[in-house]
Amino acid sequence: MNKKRQTLVYICWDLFSAGLGWWLFFNFRKHIVEASKHGYDIPINNDIKLTLGLFILPLFWVGLYTFSGYYHHIFRRSRLREVQNTFNTSVAGVLILFFVLLLDDSVQSYRDYYFSSGFLFLVHFVPTLLGRLTISTRTIRKIQSRKWGYKTILVGNGINANHLYHELQSAKKSEGFFILGYVTGSDEQLTVEGLPNIGNWSDLPRIIGEKQIEDVIICMDDKDHDKVPAVVDLVQNEQVHLKILPDSYGMVLGMIKMNNILGAMLVEADFEVMPQWQKSAKRVFDAVVGILALIIASPLFLLLAIWIKIDSKGPIFYKQQRIGYLGKPFSIYKFRSMRIDAETAGPQLSKENDQRITRIGRSLRKTRLDEIPQFFNVLIGDMSIVGPRPERQFFIDQIVKKAPYYKRLHRIKPGITSWGQVKFGYAENVDQMVDRMKYDILYLENMSLGLDIKIMIYTALIMVQGRGK
Q1: In angstroms, rounded to a whole number, what is the distance separating the alpha carbons of residues 278 and 68?
Q2: Which of 56, 144, 242, 372 has CB 3.0 to 4.6 Å from 173, enough for a Cys bridge?
Q3: How far is residue 214 from each of residues 75, 97, 381, measured CA to CA in Å?
Q4: What is d(CA 46, CA 66) in angstroms, rounded to the nearest whole number?
């Protein structure tokens, strides 16, 4: 399956249907609404508004669909979901266009507003939906006929794995799983008849990368249920869809949603922490706040740079490798607050009354001003304004030994400030890092823009009051 080609098909149709909708709406406004107001038909030949609309509005609609996340998971949607998504986005788009284009129109009565908005919704929604349903129906049929599918591996080598594999293979209509093999989920020397063994469950990250796996199905027997959480933690930051047999789903409650009710009884582990439109809104919010913060703080840059240089030897900025989104390393930037020889003995966490911290460094840390350069990390997409603080791999290895679920925090981008940072501050040892992590896990499970704003307000209070640890 070619995702880019399929996405392009959807985009081309959305552009066409948006242009068609605008052309129909513009003729309706000229020939019916305005004609009834003026008492005569109004020609629309070479109307600049029509031409501009045919160029700009389709781009507006495709931008709105992109923002809402419509073009994600392009092969994994039902026709019912097409109706729901198209309806919701059409309503939102028409409301925006109403306030931007229609509200200042002169009309005979408010009924013209409602009538025009309803007509715009109709001529946009109907052709858009018909095209999408046609494309989706074609996709579903190709998947059901086994022409298209997702590269899949089974986790398990017992009775459940054998039963599931033969059920999927014998089904009249495929669910889209091209099963390449299985990885052992049991210590017993069992096999899945008809499938090759391609490794052990602990090798999943490597296997997923090498074979470009798209779906992982956990189908261990009951006696191996204790391994299910470990498997989930192992693959949660991989770009795969994880499905679990119902017998095992209770082990990971809170991340489960039904996959489908007509095929094999599988449930899906949902690793999405926010709807796509909220993710897009958070990214826009980060970019806007980041730009404003850098503009407002720009006079401070020169003053702090001079102060740091006068206070101690060494560079103004400090760069360090941290682990970010999906476990990928990146370079974080800060104003230097420690001596240049602070870690000659290896990685160390800062402590209260730490002699390695410079005089200006203490002030920078209490006011959080040392974090200002990280707004550059936000603008280039490595970080968010609010998110769990990124750690070094050296300390992550130690944290995971005490709290394996720490890696769940890699589902989201790290942040300049966090719930854990506000409630706990800087950690002085691994145990404190684990305690602070509990607040970040709560943030992960309750993410919203409203919560981000609250955390930012508390962070600002800490900076003004100089209460940073």
Answers
A1: 8
A2: 144
A3: 12, 38, 25
A4: 31
DSSP per-residue letters across 206-258: HHHHHHT--EEEE---GGGGGGHHHHHHHHTTSSSEEEE-GGGGGGGTTSEEE
Q: What number of residues does the chain have?
A: 469
For 253, residues 6+ apart whose C-beta sits below 8 A from its C-beta are none
Q: What are phi and psi of 78, to 5 degrees?
A: -95, 165
Structure-token pair, residue 255:
């991340």
Lookup: tokens for 14: 């959305």
Tokens of 440: 């970040």
Instruction: Decide: residue 83, CB within 10 A, 0-12 exposed, 13-18 middle, 19+ buried.
Output: middle
Dump the DSSP string for 113-172: HHHHHHHHHHHHHHHHHHHHHHHHHHHHHHHHTTSS-EEEEEE--SHHHHHHHHHHHH-S
For tokens 């509200």, what's the residue? 103
Q: Are strands 384-386 and 329-335 parallel, antiparallel or unpaired?
A: unpaired
pLDDT digits (tens, 9 = 90+) for 173-231: 898 999 999 998 777 778 888 899 999 998 999 999 999 999 999 988 878 877 888 88
* Alpha carbon distance 395, 113 (integer Å): 61
Is 206:143 a contact under the CB 8 Å cutoff?
no
Element (H, E) at 360: helix 359-367
**Residue 41, pLDDT above cutoff 50:** yes
Q: Which of 167, 186, 184 lies closest to 175, judged by CA?
A: 167
Q: For residue 38, give both structure tokens.
A: 């003026």
Q: Do residues 408 and 341 touch, judged by C-beta distance below 8 A? A: no
State yes or no: pLDDT of 317 exceeds 80: yes
Q: Where do we find the tokens 């704003």?
A: 453
Helix spans in 380-418 (H)? 393-402
pTM of the predicted structure, to 2 decimals: 0.79
